[in-house]
Amino acid sequence: MYQKKIANTLSCGSVLTKEVLHGKWKSTLLACISQGIRRPSAMHRTIPSATRRVLNVQLAEMEQHGLVSKTIFPELPPRVEYQLTSLGQSLLPVIEVMEQWGNAHRPELEQVLAVSLAELPG
């Protein structure tokens, strides 16, 4: 797993929150699991622009942080399902507020982000 060169100071609550939600798909994955999408293949179908590898890495990180628990069923082929822990469940209101804020400011944010993306080299 990636090791940061400069360690975060975890003295601030917002830094702790950003640390556990850091990752492009983590908030989306938590929302999927809360809506009953528990299997990695179903999550990938819901988020087709994310690679399976990235989703698996982010699910593993969320498991390590105690946001989700993983159940492996002893079947052939093995079946894996994820559930929110109480800690992960407690993040859902935060994710909902983030979604509301993004939707409320969508026009200006889309405009600013389109300009930012256009200025990227490549």
Automatic annotation (TrEMBL):
<dbReference type="InterPro" id="IPR036388">
    <property type="entry name" value="WH-like_DNA-bd_sf"/>
</dbReference>
<keyword id="KW-0238">DNA-binding</keyword>
<dbReference type="InterPro" id="IPR002577">
    <property type="entry name" value="HTH_HxlR"/>
</dbReference>
<protein>
    <submittedName>
        <fullName>Helix-turn-helix transcriptional regulator</fullName>
    </submittedName>
</protein>
<keyword id="KW-0804">Transcription</keyword>
<feature type="domain" description="HTH hxlR-type">
    <location>
        <begin position="12"/>
        <end position="110"/>
    </location>
</feature>
<keyword id="KW-0805">Transcription regulation</keyword>
<dbReference type="Pfam" id="PF01638">
    <property type="entry name" value="HxlR"/>
</dbReference>
<dbReference type="InterPro" id="IPR036390">
    <property type="entry name" value="WH_DNA-bd_sf"/>
</dbReference>
